[in-house]
Design goal:
- By secondary structure, the protein is of the alpha/beta class.
- The chain folds into 3 domains: 69 residues, no CATH class; 53 residues, no CATH class; 94 residues, Zincin-like, CATH 3.30.2010.10.
- It is globular.
- This is YgjP-like metallopeptidase domain-containing protein.
Length: 240
C-alpha cells in the first residue's frame, strides 16, 4: 500500500486509478483511511506530489474523521441504537438464558439474551460477537436474494460470493469474478445495498471504474449517484 509522509506522520492510502478522473480526488472513509482516486495518466510519484499540496486538508480531515468514528463507536449497552436495513433498533440486553446467546428483533428493539454468568468485563465482547454473527446471517439472506434479482441484467454470474466483516471496503470483485461483500452493508437502506450489489456485479464485465463501468451501473440504477453519496457520507454510522 502506498504511503506519504506529512508532519512526521506516515499515512498509508488506497490508490485507485480511473480513466474517468481528470483531477485527483480524496476521501476519508469511516475507518479513517485515506482513499485517493487519480487519473490513469499520473504516476505514483506525481500523486504523492499532489498529496503534499493537499497536506493540510488530509491532516485536518483524517483527525476529524477519527473523532467522528470514535463518537459512533459501539459500547454494546442497553439503549444503544443499531441499524438494520435502514431501520433503527434500540439494544436491550436480557440476562435470562443459559444458552450460548440469542439475538432477535421485537418491534423496535434488538434483543440480546445472554447468561447472567458472563463476567461484566467480557459482556461487550460477547455481545459484539453475537451481533456480528446475527448481522452476517441477515446480510447473507438479503444480499443473496438481491443478487438473484439483479442477475437478470447480466450475461455472466459470479464464480463465488462471500459475506464477511471488513473494516475498510464495502465490496470487491476479483479477477476470477469472486465477489465479496462487507456484512455491515446490511445496516444501510435496501436501495443502498442494491447499489453496492449492482456496483460489484458490473465489475464482472468491467474490472475498473471506467466510463463504460459507470454507464453500466447507471443503466440499471439511474439514481446510483444519490445512493453512492449516501454511503460515502453515512458509512461512519454502519459500525459494529
Amino acid at each position: 500500500m502506498p504511503s506519504i509522509r506529512i508532519e512526521n506522520r506516515t499515512i498509508e492510502y488506497e490508490l485507485i486509478f480511473s480513466s474517468r478522473k481528470k483531477t485527483i480526488g480524496l476521501q476519508i472513509d469511516a475507518n479513517n483511511h485515506l482513499i485517493v482516486r487519480a487519473p490513469q495518466s499520473l504516476s505514483e510519484k506525481q500523486v504523492n506530489d499532489l498529496l503534499n499540496q493537499r497536506s493540510k486538508w488530509i491532516i485536518s480531515n483524517l483527525d476529524g474523521s477519527s473523532q467522528m468514528s470514535k463518537n459512533h463507536e459501539k459500547k454494546f449497552v442497553d439503549g444503544e441504537i443499531f441499524l438494520l436495513k435502514g431501520q433503527s433498533y434500540s439494544l436491550k440486553i436480557d440476562f435470562n438464558t443459559s444458552e450460548g446467546g440469542i439475538v432477535e428483533i421485537k418491534d423496535d428493539q434488538l434483543i440480546v439474551s445472554i447468561s447472567p454468568t458472563i463476567s461484566r468485563y467480557g459482556q461487550s465482547v460477547f455481545i459484539r460477537n453475537l451481533l456480528i454473527d446475527f448481522y452476517r446471517k441477515e446480510a447473507e439472506k438479503t444480499i443473496f436474494e438481491r443478487i438473484k434479482y439483479y442477475l437478470k441484467f447480466f450475461d455472466s454470474e459470479p464464480a463465488s460470493i462471500k459475506i464477511k466483516y471488513m473494516k475498510s471496503r464495502w465490496g470487491s470483485c476479483s479477477g476470477q469474478n469472486r465477489l465479496s461483500f462487507n456484512m455491515r452493508i446490511i445496516m444501510a437502506k435496501v436501495d443502498v445495498i442494491d447499489y453496492l450489489i449492482v456496483h460489484e456485479l458490473c465489475h464482472l464485465k468491467h474490472k475498473n471504474h471506467s466510463r463504460k463501468f459507470w454507464n453500466s451501473v447507471k443503466a440499471i440504477l439511474p439514481d446510483y449517484e444519490k445512493r453512492k453519496k449516501w454511503l460515502r457520507e453515512n458509512e461512519y454510522l454502519l459500525q459494529l
